[in-house]
């Protein structure tokens, strides 16, 4: 981790919050608190009084060690690993001469190497933690001490201090705002680090403290605050200020929380209430958990099993020793007596047991753990070096911040994503509009000359225009400038009906400060079309209308809130006419229109449907003319409601309701919340990889739903979208159950009545498409049995992992055509103990889940619930401090380095700058890491059992004397030198398919989710192969050499000849085996495999040379035995025979498996090999989707062919507005908007049919392979849209090779044969085009394309439901309401 040296405007936040005990130690000694803190008392400017409560200091400590504690603490942590303790135990045994038959260095050298590597890594990590801590703790604050402002480090700030903050500074602790430089002691803050929202928020001090504006007055301030204890509730604070014999209530509106940034405020003063670990930010950051992969946990289990197996072998051989010593050994006592400590056969057996434990310990060598760490380090560097995950715009590479979780990236089942800044750029732009029944903004993406249209130049005739808006429809600008009254009134409304502020740094350089990005986008749009908002006072608004300054009198602002869902202003123009302008959600506004607007309302409603179909945020605009009498009468009611002592908000709302009636409709706006590049494509690809994506956002429900539509998580083809808004436990329970009942009912309507009654078969189809399971023609499915067995195996694994948890619910068999939207207050009830299962059953049956208005801690709780109940690998991705808890809780945390600081990055395991890089991280790096680690482990256990078990068989022929077959140098070097590098090369570089194929075929990701490549079954297969190899390697040389002789007639049956022959055969066999296991050869692989073999022979001859014998005659006493042995032809024939017997069954099994039961990767490799042979040069240009979804639809310039969409929300991103502050004369200063040019790109349609796992239809493939179909092709509908591909056969260019075009045809034929219509299916029309490219006979090479169809697409006879002309209509949104509420 690299920490920049100087980032003045970024707060380096906390990586690993520790327990308060450690914080107190750093703060100044260990002090015990008496019980739990029930309330907090803080007295200003009185450190002596506050210190007696022993409150935490503002110092943050995330490091684990210091110079003194590093060595003992680190060693203690490392020896908590079972393997390290095991090897330490073996080392102690080897130091006992009576039982050790191996030298101590065979264990101590690898052990010291492992401990040293891990210690260096831990020390490096902790160094960067110290560095990060120092940068946070040493930031400067101005603290009022003895009446003088002094600069103090953050770490020295104490509870009760008064500190001064200046503009753009981070808040150092949780402060009570005392006064500020702004009128009425207002203060403007940005809370992106807390809740992810970048819009401004306003805080205001108490009136009684607002007058304490200078340090001298503040120094005399001795008020006492009594408030709630530290907690994690960001939106609530309850306390009381006692001062001058009076008490004043305090709320969250008076607080500045740590992590906020002071904006547009020159300075302010605050009293420290909570510091350091007590601050609300730290209370929400969660505890750092040590993360282990599922493979790590499995390896720990397997090591224990192997140790048990080792003990069993030791017991067997010890019993053999006892029997042999009693029956045979006693006969040799005269010339081969027992060693002095041994006086009977039982004691001899006891020592023999421990000797064999030492000898056989190589079944789990310590080099395994060294190799695993090296491989993981290599995978991490590949992620860091990946140029396709480098963002040139921000100059940010991807970074693997941990080396322990790489293979877990290949097993992710659930992704939990933040919204703001993660899925979106948080940039809003005016996209389309409807004015008086005319739609503007729909432009043909290809102009009349075949060129893309250019954006309008607004600066012509409008020097105040903003250059950031890209709008292509010139007819709207022409309508405004030619005097169209409706168009001009439309933009006049946008320039007046808002609460934005305008800053003019220099003449004509306007900067709008809006409370929400939406509002800023609308005001900016009006500015570009000639209605420029210039300035405001509490009673006026000045607008330049087509170059002419006009000042309106602001009579009233009818503010926005979540209940009204609209805002209005009442203004008087210079001519004296009074008019009310209103903008809001169309569902609310249409109810308040004059009846004469009916026809216009219908037209505008159609336009709004189209905009919502494109995922745009919509608002309706209306106005009403008021007479002077109406205004006077209403203003009396308005003033009376404003002065009401009780129920003021309700009275104001009723007053607003009176005037907002009989309005005239002007039109509607459509704002685009800019998604990050490639988000829809990434979500589509990840969904095809059977990964479920949940969005957890602090934003409001309508905004989140809009984004859900924009990124295609929510689609019009969904059967139903459920909205859970209950406020009580009972109401939430009823809404969840009602949603489940409707799912079951819909499934029954779709031909799944049996399933609804609990008689579901393992394979089911999507609800509502009218297609049953199996083939209508009744053709057999030979692979069904195999797929069902796999399904059962998966369920069995899940049940084992759940350790007696509840059985899977019926709802898990329901196809994912549903979506769930749940609010934060409902989620709080849903996450209670007895409600968790209810929530999970409903949510996990849905294809998409969106949780709105959730707190940081709730995000973590949702992740924890899935981890605990589903036993699935989870990944959390976010960019703000509000995502830290979620990132730490998930198995894998990914931080996006975006607009909201770097706290998420510092807390993450992986980081990059764009959400779209996630598909490459998972589908390429994650899948490869999992594949490589699994192959590495399988081979490693195989080669070590083959090596070690030879000792076991030899024990039966050496009197169970714990004699080794090989010499001790071979035993030491076998895992360190002879076989380490080839398996490392395979573990680091191996691939089954190239990276572009991993992205084109997302189903390749599924084996990792099902844990198919390395599990207990695969482990036992490897062990069995290793034991078989050891039998061959021992008994073949033993049988041959027992009767063989040299050319001179001397027998070959001596110990050293046997040892050299067996060792040589072993090295050759395992080298050939790894050559077979390696799927991707590089120069490094060749060098390591064949180099290790050559190195073995080199070292073998050196150790038996006369040179070493002359130097160390006692250590190397078998002079020339290697040369003598390997000169004998019979030895080489023996080695060759053993190699063939070991390898031949493996080859036969793999060929049969490849021919009879090919895996998806085998099929993809096969098609690639065939296509490479047939492809012309240059034929791959432009092929495949790649990372950014090349070749998809054009996007925002043209409308997509969609119909019947519901309106998903409205474009307000804030809650309560600031109308009252404006009209009261409090000079508003709001957020700065960064409006940038961004051409949005949408995927044209969602691939709606998620694959039901383990479907098979080999009959379809067989017929398709012969070029026949069971039914004619259904022609595509007229409104077909470009497809979003999950394979090269869907997204390839026109020059797709015939083999792969044939692959696409099999998919199309399987769909067509079932007679399923797919109107408007772009993917299907493309499939038809591919199907016309016939596949030549004989090019398939005998591959079963039934398996190809099933493997590639995971479905059988299910028509793709693609939105188009015959779409069944929009999904109903069920906003559940409960009588309990």
UniProtKB/TrEMBL annotation:
Its EC number is 7.6.2.1. The chain crosses the membrane at residues 102-120, 302-324, 344-370, 936-957, 969-989, 1019-1038, 1058-1076, 1088-1111, 1131-1152. Its cofactor is Mg(2+). One of its GO terms (cellular component) is trans-Golgi network. Residues 905-1158 form the P-type ATPase C-terminal domain. Residues 23-43, 744-809, 1257-1344, 1360-1381 are annotated as: Disordered. It is found in: Endomembrane system; Membrane. The active site is at 418 (4-aspartylphosphate intermediate). It holds the Pfam family PhoLip_ATPase_C. The keyword Membrane applies. Keywords: ATP-binding, Lipid transport, Magnesium, Membrane, Metal-binding, Nucleotide-binding, Translocase, Transmembrane, Transmembrane helix, Transport. It catalyses: ATP + H2O + phospholipidSide 1 = ADP + phosphate + phospholipidSide 2. Residues 42-108 form the P-type ATPase N-terminal domain. It is an enzyme of class 7 (translocase). It is a multi-pass membrane protein. Mg(2+) binds at residues 418, 420, 879, 883. Residues 1257-1266, 1282-1293 have a biased composition (Low complexity). Residues 744-755, 782-801 have a biased composition (Basic and acidic residues). GO terms for molecular function: ATP binding; ATP hydrolysis activity; magnesium ion binding; phosphatidylcholine flippase activity. ATP binds at residues 418-420, 519, 560, 583, 617, 697-699, 853, 859, 882-883. GO terms for biological process: Golgi organization; phospholipid translocation. Belongs to the cation transport ATPase (P-type) (TC 3.A.3) family. Type IV subfamily. NCBIfam families: ATPase-Plipid, ATPase_P-type. This is Phospholipid-transporting ATPase. It comes from Clupea harengus (Atlantic herring).
């Amino acid at each position: 981790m690299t920490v920049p040296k100087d980032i003045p405007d970024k707060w380096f936040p906390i990586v690993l919050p520790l327990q308060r005990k450690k914080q107190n130690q750093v703060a100044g000694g260990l002090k015990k608190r008496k019980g739990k803190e029930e309330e907090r008392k803080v007295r200003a400017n009185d450190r002596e009084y506050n210190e007696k409560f022993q409150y935490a200091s503002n110092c943050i400590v995330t490091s684990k060690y210091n110079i003194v504690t590093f060595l003992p603490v680190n060693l203690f942590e490392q020896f908590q690993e079972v393997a390290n303790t095991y090897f330490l135990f073996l080392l102690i045994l080897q130091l006992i001469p009576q039982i050790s038959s191996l030298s101590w260095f065979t264990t101590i050298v690898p052990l010291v190497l492992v401990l040293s590597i891990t210690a260096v890594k831990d020390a490096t990590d902790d160094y960067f933690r110290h560095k990060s801590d120092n940068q946070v703790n040493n930031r400067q604050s101005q603290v009022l001490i003895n009446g003088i402002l002094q600069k103090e480090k953050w770490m020295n700030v104490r509870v009760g201090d008064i500190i001064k903050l200046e503009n753009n500074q981070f808040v150092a602790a949780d402060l009570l705002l005392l006064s500020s430089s702004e009128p009425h002691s207002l203060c403007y803050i940005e809370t992106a680090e807390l809740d992810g929202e970048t819009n401004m928020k306003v805080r205001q001090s108490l009136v009684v403290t607002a007058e304490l504006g200078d340090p001298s007055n503040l120094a005399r301030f001795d008020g006492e605050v009594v408030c709630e204890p530290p907690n994690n509730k960001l939106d609530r604070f309850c306390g009381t200020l006692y001062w001058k014999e009076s008490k004043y209530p305090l709320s969250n509106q008076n607080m500045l929380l740590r992590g906020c940034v002071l904006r547009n405020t020159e300075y302010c003063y605050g009293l420290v209430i909570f510091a350091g670990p007590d601050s609300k930010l730290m209370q929400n950051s969660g505890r750092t958990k040590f993360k282990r992969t599922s493979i790590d946990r499995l390896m720990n289990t397997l090591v224990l099993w192997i140790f048990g197996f080792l003990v069993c072998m030791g017991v067997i051989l010890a019993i053999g020793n006892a029997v042999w010593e009693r029956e045979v050994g006693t006969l040799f006592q005269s010339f081969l007596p027992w060693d002095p400590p041994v006086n009977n056969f039982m004691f001899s057996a006891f020592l023999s047991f421990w000797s064999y434990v030492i000898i056989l310990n190589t079944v789990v060598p310590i080099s395994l753990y060294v190799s695993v760490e090296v491989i993981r380090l290599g995978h991490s560097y590949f992620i860091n070096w990946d140029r396709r995950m480098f963002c040139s715009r921000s100059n940010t590479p991807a970074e693997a911040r941990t080396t322990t979780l790489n293979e877990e990236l290949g097993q992710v089942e659930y992704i939990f994503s933040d919204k703001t800044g993660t899925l979106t750029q948080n940039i809003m732009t005016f996209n389309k509009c409807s004015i008086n029944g005319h739609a503007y903004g729909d432009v043909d993406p290809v102009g009349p000359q075949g060129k893309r249209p250019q954006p309008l130049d607004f600066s012509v005739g409008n020097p105040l225009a903003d250059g950031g808006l890209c709008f292509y429809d010139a007819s709207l600008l022409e309508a405004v400038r030619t005097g169209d009254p409706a168009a001009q009134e439309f933009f006049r409304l946008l320039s007046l009906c808002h609460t934005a502020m305008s800053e003019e740094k220099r003449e004509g350089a306007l900067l709008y400060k809006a409370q929400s990005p939406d509002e800023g986008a609308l005001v900016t749009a009006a500015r570009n079309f000639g209605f420029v908002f210039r300035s405001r006072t509490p009673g006026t608004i000045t607008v330049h209308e087509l170059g002419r300054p006009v000042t309106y009198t602001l009579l009233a602002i009818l503010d926005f809130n979540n209940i009204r869902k609209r805002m209005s202003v009442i203004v008087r123009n210079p001519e004296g006419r009074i008019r009310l302008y209103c903008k809001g959600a169309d569902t609310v506004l249409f109810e308040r229109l004059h009846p004469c607007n009916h026809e216009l309302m219908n037209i505008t409603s159609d336009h709004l449907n189209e905009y919502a179909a494109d995922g745009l945020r919509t608002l309706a605009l209306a106005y009403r003319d008021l007479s002077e009498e109406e205004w006077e009468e209403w203003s009396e009611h308005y003033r009376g409601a404003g002065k009401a002592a009780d129920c003021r908000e309700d009275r104001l709302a009723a007053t607003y309701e009176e005037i907002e009636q009989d309005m005239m409709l002007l039109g509607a706006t459509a704002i685009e919340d800019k998604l990050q590049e490639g988000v829809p494509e990434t979500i589509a690809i990840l969904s095809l990889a059977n990964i479920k994506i949940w969005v957890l956002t602090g934003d409001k429900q309508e905004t989140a739903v809009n984004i859900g539509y924009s990124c295609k998580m929510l689609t019009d083809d969904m059967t139903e979208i459920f909205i859970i808004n209950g406020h009580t436990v009972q109401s939430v329970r009823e809404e969840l159950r009602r949603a489940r009942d409707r799912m079951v009912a819909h499934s029954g309507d779709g031909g799944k009545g049996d399933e609804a009654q609990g008689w579901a078969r393992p394979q089911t189809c999507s609800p509502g498409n009218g297609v049953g399971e199996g083939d209508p023609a009744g053709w057999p499915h030979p692979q069904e049995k195999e797929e069902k067995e796999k399904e059962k195996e998966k369920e069995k694994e899940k049940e084992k992992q759940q350790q007696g948890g509840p059985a899977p619910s019926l709802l898990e068999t329901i196809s994912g055509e549903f979506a769930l939207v749940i609010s934060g207050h409902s989620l709080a009830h849903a996450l209670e103990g007895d409600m968790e299962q209810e929530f999970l059953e409903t949510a996990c049956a849905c294809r998409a889940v969106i949780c709105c208005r959730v707190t940081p801690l709730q995000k973590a709780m949702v992740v924890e619930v899935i981890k605990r109940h589903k036993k699935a690998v989870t990944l959390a991705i976010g960019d703000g401090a509000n995502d830290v808890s979620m990132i730490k809780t998930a198995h894998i945390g990914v931080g996006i380095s975006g607009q909201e600081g770097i706290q998420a990055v510092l807390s993450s395991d992986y980081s990059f700058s764009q959400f779209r890089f996630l598909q490459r991280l998972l589908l390429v790096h994650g899948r490869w890491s999992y594949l490589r680690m699994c192959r590495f482990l399988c081979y490693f256990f195989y080669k070590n059992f083959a090596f070690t078990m030879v000792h076991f068989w030899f024990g039966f022929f050496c009197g169970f004397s714990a004699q080794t077959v090989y010499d001790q140098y071979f035993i030491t070097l076998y895992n360190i030198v002879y076989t380490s590098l080839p398996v490392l090369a395979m573990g680091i570089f191996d691939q089954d398919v190239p990276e572009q194929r991993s992205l084109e075929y997302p189903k390749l990701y599924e084996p990792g989710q099902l844990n198919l490549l390395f599990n207990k079954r695969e482990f036992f297969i490897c062990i069995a192969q290793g034991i078989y190899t050891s039998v061959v390697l021992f008994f073949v040389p033993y049988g041959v050499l027992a009767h063989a002789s040299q050319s001179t007639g001397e027998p070959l049956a001596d110990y050293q000849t046997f040892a050299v022959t067996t060792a040589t055969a072993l090295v050759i066999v395992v080298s050939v085996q790894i050559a077979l296991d390696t799927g991707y050869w590089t120069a490094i692989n060749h060098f390591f495999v064949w180099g290790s073999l050559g190195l073995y022979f080199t070292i073998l001859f050196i150790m038996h040379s006369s040179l070493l014998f002359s130097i160390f005659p006692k250590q190397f006493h078998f002079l020339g035995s290697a040369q003598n042995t390997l000169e004998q032809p019979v030895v080489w024939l023996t080695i060759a025979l053993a190699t063939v017997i070991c390898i031949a069954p493996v080859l036969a099994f793999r060929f049969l498996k490849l021919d009879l039961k090919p895996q998806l990767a085998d099929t993809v490799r096969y098609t690639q090999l065939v296509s490479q042979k047939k492809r012309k040069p240059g034929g791959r240009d432009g092929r495949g989707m790649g990372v950014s979804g090349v070749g998809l639809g054009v996007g925002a310039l043209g409308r997509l062919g969609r119909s019947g969409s519901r309106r998903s929300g409205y474009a307000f991103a804030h809650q309560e507005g600031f109308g009252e502050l404006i009209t009261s004369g409090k000079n508003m200063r709001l957020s700065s908007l960064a409006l940038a040019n961004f051409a949005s790109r949408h995927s044209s349609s969602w691939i709606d049919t998620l694959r039901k796992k383990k479907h098979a239809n080999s009959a379809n493939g067989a017929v398709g392979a012969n070029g026949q179909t069971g039914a004619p092709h259904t022609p595509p509908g007229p409104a077909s849209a470009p497809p979003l591909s999950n394979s090269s056969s869907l997204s390839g260019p026109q020059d797709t090779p015939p083999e792969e075009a044939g692959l696409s045809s099999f998919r199309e034929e399987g769909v067509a044969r079932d007679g399923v219509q797919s109107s408007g299916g772009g993917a299907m029309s493309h499939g038809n085009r591919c199907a016309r490219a016939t596949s030549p006979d004989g090019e398939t090479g005998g591959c079963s394309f039934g398996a190809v169809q099933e493997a590639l697409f995971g479905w059988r006879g299910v028509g793709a439901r693609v939105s188009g002309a015959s779409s069944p209509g929009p999904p109903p949104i069920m906003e559940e309401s409960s009588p309990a509420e």
